[in-house]
Structure formats: structure tokens, C-alpha cells
């Protein structure tokens, strides 16, 4: 995990050799960025499992389900960042579970398309079973929707086209997805939507009850409408569910974990008309959503290709201009608009800032766009990074005028990562501002401020953040 030289240098600052000294050594290695917060947390629990799988170090846990966990990892051979999906230990000795897991990996290796997250390797190491895949920086549509509230129709249609193209390709290879939902669609930093998790593809979901239950909606829809198992039109119905929620901010039927409720066909037949939830949509988009959500599969779109034809016809109708927004990280609706009283930056301000660079640490594609557009408009050069480790490495080799970071970019280690950034900011006298989301407000007492490092809890606007950076720089 750590080179002998780095370990020796960290150990020089530690006194004693008891258990408290070991804990302090682990914390020192984290401060030196030799360990991530996730890794030090594992070690402080006196555990080893979960630190490395095959030739990969596990850096952070990105997601966790009943069947498997997903990590950001790093190859110990090449240093390449990678995504890893690791089968939970409770299933490691279950042949059916292992076969289902490996089947997902082997299938993923066959699917090579720009809108499908590729699987690179299917492996086992000491009883641990894992898949390696492309690491997509950005996040899944479910998490992004929680932050945004809803997407503009133009954005939603663009991302649904991406996903439909992935489905079209998979169908040409003889596969359907069988588990379409917002959390199984990732949005890259380049704003490309990609399908992930073909674990139930083709309808062969027998094996693990927890995993099979993920597709209970598919089974219910097909059982009561006479559709065959693995019907590609079922994927289109649930793509329609995604589109409905993306443009309206509300699911077409109430979410529930109750399996009996999920097995009621009335749940999928009695969907509220999209016009009652989002009355401002264009008629062509309403018609597309309505046709996708027809319970009778013969009245639905019959293939992704047929759907793509109508979606592409719709695209030119969208305005090429979008309203800029200044809010950051709203969790309850669209971002607040820039106040009209602010106006455009003056020529002198733009000229003064033109040689200034702001380093932004933000992993969500939509927020990256907002930050880049807003700061550029005010005359700054913007260096956008989504990975804190890369940002810290870059800061060692270049000077910037300010650092702006969101707590979402710091994942599960807000306190530790902020501490590392604060140490750099205080040492180099570089203004650092952390935008702290409302749901992480409980961390505020653990995030000390200084002359060059400050925390701004939500709600906060981009102007607030910029003003704070400029005030700190001038003081």
C-alpha cells in the first residue's frame, strides 16, 4: 500500500511503538496523501481485507448494494484509475452468486460502445471476486437528479438518446438490460450518459434472490401484459420511467421497497399523465413519454431504433440558448438564476482577473459546467479537476489564485480531504473555500477556518463563493 521510503519518512515523526503510535502513523500517512481516508479507516479498524484486490488498491467506496460494492481503485502496476465491482463476502462461497457475477463481467467484456461502461477484467483473488471497469468521473443520474431537482427537456432528451443508443447496440448483440433505472446510468465529465450493470441482461436472473428482486418490476410488467421474458420493449418502458422523472423531478409511481407493492400491475398502469406533473412540456415530448409508458407492449415503441428516430426529430426544436444559473448544489429544485442586478463583469475586472487561475474540485458534470462558465465570464482561467488527489499533486507544481471545492467532490472523507487542502492553502497563502452542502452541515465544527481556508454552508450562490475568494485574496 505504501512504499518503504514513504513509510520510513512518516515514522520519523512518530514516537513510541504502542497501539496509539500505530494509529498516529496511519493518520500521518493520510496527511501525507500516502493513504486515502477510506484506507486509513480500514487500517484503524485493524482490518486488511478491503484494501487491495488483485493488482488494484481500493481508494474509495463509491457505492454499495446488497450484492456487490463499487470502488474507485488504482492499478499498482500502472497507476491507472479504475472502477472495481467486488462481490460481497457473504456470496463469495455461493456458486450461483459467483456465476451470476462472473456472467455480468463476461457479458460486459463483449459490449463495446461509447454509451456502455466497458468491463476490462473478470478476476478472483483469495476468495474475492471482482470486475474492473472504466472509472467514470461524474456520477449517476439518480444522484445528479437529487441535486438538480430536474433536468431541462433538452438535457433529458440528450441523455436518453445516449442510453437508447447503448440499448440499440446491446440488442444488436442479442442482449437487453433488464434493470434500467437512474442509478444504472452514469454521466461522464464530458456529459455522455453510459449504461452500467448488465448483470440481469437477457432475463437470466435466476440465482441470487436479492439480485433477482432488482428486476421484479420487469417480471410484473411482462407477466400481466403477456410479454415474453427478456422483451426489449420492457427496457423501453423503464427508459420512459427515467425520462418522466428527469423532466418532471418526480417518479411516475411512488417509490417503495415493499416487494408486494412492486408486484402490483396497477402500479404501472395507473401512471399520472406527465402533463399533470409538468404542464409546460412540448406536445411531441409528451407523446414520446406517453408511448414509452404504454402498459400494452404492442402500443409501445417496438425497438430502440424506433424511439431514437422520434427523439432525434425532437432535438432541433430545443433552443440553443440555456439560462445560466448561479446557485450551487440545490437539492430541492432548479438552480437559482443569476440576479439581474449583478450585470456583466466590467472590462477592468475581466482584465484584472485574466491572469488569475481558480482551481475547482468538482466531479459532477453539470456543476463543472456552471463553475467554468461563471468564473470564465468574470475573467478567470479555470482549472477543473474531479479528483482531490490529482488536485493536490497539481498544486505542488503550480500556483493558483484560489481553490474552490464542493463537499460532494470529497466523497466520504470531507474532514480529512479538507484538512489536506487547508494545509496547502495555509502554507502557500492561497485562498481556499469549501462549499458545504446542507446535508453535511453537521461536519461544520470539524472543519476549522483560518485566514486562507474558509467553509461556506449552503445555501450559497456562485457569487458568494467568488466574493469570498476575492476578499480573502485582497486581505
UniProtKB/TrEMBL annotation:
Membrane spanning stretches: none
- Key word Transferase present: yes
What PROSITE patterns does the record tag this protein with? PROTEIN_KINASE_DOM
Organism encoding this protein: Planctopirus limnophila (strain ATCC 43296 / DSM 3776 / IFAM 1008 / Mu 290)
UniProt GO MF annotations? ATP binding; protein serine/threonine kinase activity
Q: Where on the tree of life does the source sit, at the highest rank?
A: Bacteria
Keywords per UniProt? ATP-binding, Kinase, Nucleotide-binding, Serine/threonine-protein kinase, Transferase
Question: Region Disordered: which residues?
Answer: 317-353
Where the record annotates domain Protein kinase, the positions are: 56-318
Keyword field contains Nucleotide-binding: yes
Q: Mind telling me what this protein is named?
A: Serine/threonine protein kinase-related protein
Which residue intervals are annotated with compositional bias (Low complexity) in the record? 317-333
Q: Which SUPFAM superfamilies match?
A: CheY-like (SSF52172), Protein kinase-like (PK-like) (SSF56112)
Question: Which InterPro entries does this UniProt record tie to the protein?
Answer: CheY-like_superfamily, Kinase-like_dom_sf, Prot_kinase_dom
Amino acid at each position: 500500500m505504501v512504499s518503504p521510503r514513504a513509510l520510513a519518512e512518516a515514522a520519523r515523526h512518530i514516537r513510541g511503538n504502542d497501539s496509539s503510535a500505530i494509529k498516529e502513523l496511519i493518520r500521518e500517512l493520510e496527511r501525507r496523501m500516502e493513504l486515502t481516508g477510506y484506507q486509513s479507516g480500514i487500517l484503524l479498524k485493524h482490518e486488511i481485507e478491503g484494501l487491495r484486490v488483485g493488482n488494484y488498491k481500493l481508494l474509495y467506496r463509491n457505492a454499495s448494494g446488497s450484492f456487490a460494492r463499487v470502488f474507485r481503485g488504482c492499478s499498482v502496476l500502472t497507476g491507472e484509475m479504475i472502477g472495481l465491482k467486488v462481490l460481497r463476502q457473504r456470496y463469495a462461497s455461493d456458486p450461483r452468486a459467483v456465476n451470476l457475477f462472473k456472467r455480468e463481467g463476461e457479458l460486459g467484456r463483449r459490449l463495446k460502445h461509447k454509451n456502455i461502461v466497458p468491463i476490462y477484467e473478470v478476476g478472483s483473488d483469495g476468495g474475492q471476486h471482482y470486475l474492473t471497469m472504466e472509472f467514470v468521473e461524474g456520477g449517476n443520474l439518480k444522484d445528479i437528479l437529487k441535486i438538480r431537482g430536474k433536468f431541462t427537456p433538452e438535457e433529458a432528451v440528450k441523455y436518453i438518446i445516449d442510453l437508447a443508443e447503448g440499448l440499440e447496440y446491446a440488442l444488436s448483440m442479442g442482449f437487453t438490460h433488464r434493470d434500467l433505472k437512474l442509478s444504472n446510468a452514469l454521466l461522464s465529465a464530458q456529459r455522455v450518459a453510459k449504461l452500467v450493470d448488465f448483470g440481469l441482461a437477457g432475463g437470466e436472473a435466476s440465482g441470487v434472490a436479492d439480485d433477482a428482486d432488482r428486476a421484479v418490476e420487469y417480471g410484473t410488467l411482462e407477466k400481466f401484459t403477456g410479454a415474453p421474458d427478456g422483451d426489449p420493449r420492457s427496457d423501453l418502458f423503464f427508459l420512459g420511467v427515467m425520462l418522466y422523472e428527469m423532466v418532471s423531478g418526480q417518479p411516475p409511481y411512488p417509490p417503495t421497497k415493499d416487494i408486494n407493492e412492486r408486484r402490483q400491475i396497477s402500479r404501472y398502469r395507473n401512471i399520472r399523465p406527465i402533463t399533470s406533473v409538468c404542464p409546460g412540456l412540448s406536445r411531441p415530448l409528451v407523446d414520446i413519454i406517453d408511448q414509452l409508458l404504454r402498459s400494452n407492449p404492442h402500443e409501445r415503441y417496438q425497438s430502440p431504433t424506433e424511439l431514437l428516430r422520434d427523439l432525434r426529430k425532437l432535438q432541433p426544436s430545443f433552443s440553443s440558448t440555456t439560462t445560466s444559473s448561479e446557485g450551487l448544489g440545490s437539492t430541492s429544485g432548479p438552480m437559482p438564476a443569476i440576479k439581474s442586478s449583478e450585470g456583466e463583469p466590467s472590462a477592468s475586472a475581466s482584465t484584472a482577473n485574466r491572469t488569475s487561475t481558480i482551481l475547482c474540485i468538482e466531479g459532477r458534470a453539470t456543476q463543472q459546467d456552471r463553475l467554468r462558465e461563471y468564473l470564465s465570464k468574470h475573467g478567470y482561467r479555470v482549472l477543473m479537476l474531479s479528483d482531490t488527489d490529482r488536485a493536490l499533486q497539481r498544486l505542488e507544481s503550480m500556483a493558483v489564485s484560489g481553490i474552490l471545492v464542493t463537499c460532494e467532490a470529497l466523497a466520504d472523507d470531507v474532514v480529512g480531504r479538507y484538512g489536506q487542502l487547508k494545509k496547502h492553502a495555509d502554507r502557500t497563502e492561497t485562498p481556499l473555500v469549501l462549499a458545504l452542502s446542507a446535508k453535511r452541515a453537521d461536519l461544520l465544527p470539524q472543519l476549522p477556518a483560518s485566514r486562507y481556508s474558509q467553509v461556506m454552508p449552503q445555501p450559497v450562490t456562485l457569487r458568494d463563493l467568488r466574493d469570498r475568494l476575492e476578499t480573502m485574496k485582497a486581505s
